[in-house]
Amino acid sequence: MVIVQPNSQIKLTNVSIVRYRKGGKRFEIACYKNKVMEWRSGVEKDLGEVMQIDNVFLNVSKGQAANKDDLMKCFKTEDRNAIILEILKKGELQVGEKERASMLEGMYRDIATTVAEKCVNPETKRPYTVTMIEKAMADLHLSVNPSRSAKSQALDVIKQLLEKKTIPIARAQMRVRIVVPSKDGKRIKDKLMTMIASKEDEDLDENYEWTCLIDPGQFRPINELLQAETKGKGQLEMLSLTETKQGDEVF
């Protein structure tokens, strides 16, 4: 795609357009493919990595930029950065049919993965597999909204599963004890701390020992990390399962 602007031509590749209607006008921004969804899900924080051109357009392909009067009339501000953020957050990502189907399929699985990581079967006290959550979502006839992050939609899925009792499910965190030989503890502590929700207690005497709350989906990865990094000498013990109320945690 070539954008023609006064006294210049800008050739864009790998471009995605986000379109947004406000105040009776259509506005567009030019972004890098895949980066829009990464920004909406919180993976990408740097706006500079998302935007191909730091400008607001009426029509990207024609290079027709929005003027200050249009922006002020529709957005009540001339702050271009604030306007871009609003379009990026609320606008519709323009993609082809095949690309859209692939994107929705990936987001569907991301939603199911998040639900599986945050929830357990309260009857067995065990996490669900992603496949089991996907089946439950299909039973609810849920549709994916590409304009919302997978995490926010996962919270809606959990609420619906609880209300409709499609499967026995509960938001929960595991209270666990992690014990690691001191020589390994210093080395792997930082890795471990990225995998826990909160640390309740810490003892760094002979062994490194932590009492922590973790999301159910982290139990296996933590155990695999301990076994690999301590040659089987690390220990992971589940102490209890603490059910969390809706609204207690924000994704």
UniProtKB/TrEMBL annotation:
Domain Ribosome maturation protein SDO1/SBDS N-terminal per the UniProt entry, residue ranges: 14-100
Domain Ribosome maturation protein SDO1/SBDS C-terminal: 174-241
Principal localisation: cytoplasm
Annotated compartments: Cytoplasm; Nucleus
Gene Ontology biological process: cytosolic ribosome assembly
Signal peptide span: none
GO-annotated cellular components: cytoplasm; nucleus
Family: Belongs to the SDO1/SBDS family.
Protein name: Ribosome maturation protein SDO1
Native species: Linnemannia gamsii
